[in-house]
Amino acid sequence: MKMQAKDLNLFYGEHQALFNVSLDVPENHVVALIGPSGCGKSTFLRTLNRMNDLIEGVRIEGKITLDDEDIYTPGTDLVELRKRVGMVFQRPNPFPMSIYDNVAYGCRVHGLKDKAKLDEIVERSLRGAALWDEVKDRLNASAMGMSGGQQQRLCIARVMAVEPEVVLMDEPCSALDPISTMKIEELVGQLKQKFTIVMVTHNMQQAARVSDYTAFFLNGKLIEHDETDVIFTKPHNKKTEDYISGRFG
Q1: How far, in Å, CA of 73 to CA of 100, rounded?
Q2: DSSP code of residue 220
Q3: First to last CA, the chain
Q4: Any bridge partners for residue 23, and if so which?
Q5: Contact (CB, 8 A) for 8 and 215
Q6: Apex CA 141: angle with CA 138 and CA 147, to 5°?
Q7: Band of pLDDT at residue 249, cut at 50, 70 and 90
Q8: How far apart are CA 213 and CA 6, in angstroms?
Q9: Helices (H), the chain
């Protein structure tokens, strides 16, 4: 398994947000996390690259491994971890700089200064994000002038540029129009050839379309996880069935 969570509990101060979550993330597959708002799916997603560390009072019990190494071991290099486990957020968050500099940013942070190499990485990443043909003639233009869908693909290109092994996506299409959403979904299908993807989504149809495995969260607990086809056609748990069928509530 590329990543594994085992008996994971997470607390915000005295409040427990995750309860004994164990989940496998297979390499080069898409795992969708579904469930109602506040169920813990985004909280769980952020444990996979330790983004929750940025919140005061967070405490974690249990284990999360990346290639069988515990990412919560004291002394873990968080910069290196977040290079290996990149993240695309709910709303596009391009930096207020050029399209080129957005993509090159992470490589420069990690010490790459060779212009020819940066040019190559920027083009490769933009091509990988299905954006090159749309922006190749305006790489020096501000990223803030792009459409929302283009900005989100730019953020995906920015993550890809540092060559992560895992890409986390926290509802990457929730702020986008249907056409942009379709492009992102098509992109996810292509990206899993190179990356392992864990995606939070509220959209049942999207989970069914893009994921290989689906995990259903409720009240901080992982209720059920299996191959997506199984979850959507023969769920083992009544709560899962009710949620997917729209009877939940």
Answers
A1: 36
A2: T
A3: 34
A4: 5
A5: no
A6: 90
A7: low
A8: 17
A9: 41-47, 78-84, 99-109, 115-128, 132-135, 148-161, 178-191, 204-210, 228-233, 238-245
104-114, pLDDT tens digit by residue?
999 999 899 99
Judge whether 158 and 129 are in contact, CB under 8 Å. Answer: no
Strands, sheet with 69-70, edge to edge from the N-terminal-most edge strand? 15-25, 3-12, 58-66, 69-70
Backbone angles phi, psi at 225, to 5 degrees: -150, 145
pLDDT band at 247 (very low <50, low <70, confident <90, very high): confident
Nearest to 79 by CA among 113, 111, 55: 111
Any idea of the CA torsion for 241, 242, 243, 244, to the nearest 10 degrees?
A: 50
For residue 9, give the 3-state DSSP assignment: strand
> Which of the four pLDDT bands, split at 50, 70 and 90, describes residue 238?
very high
- Amino acid at site 21: V
Please give the Cα distance from 56 to 38 (Å, whole number): 19
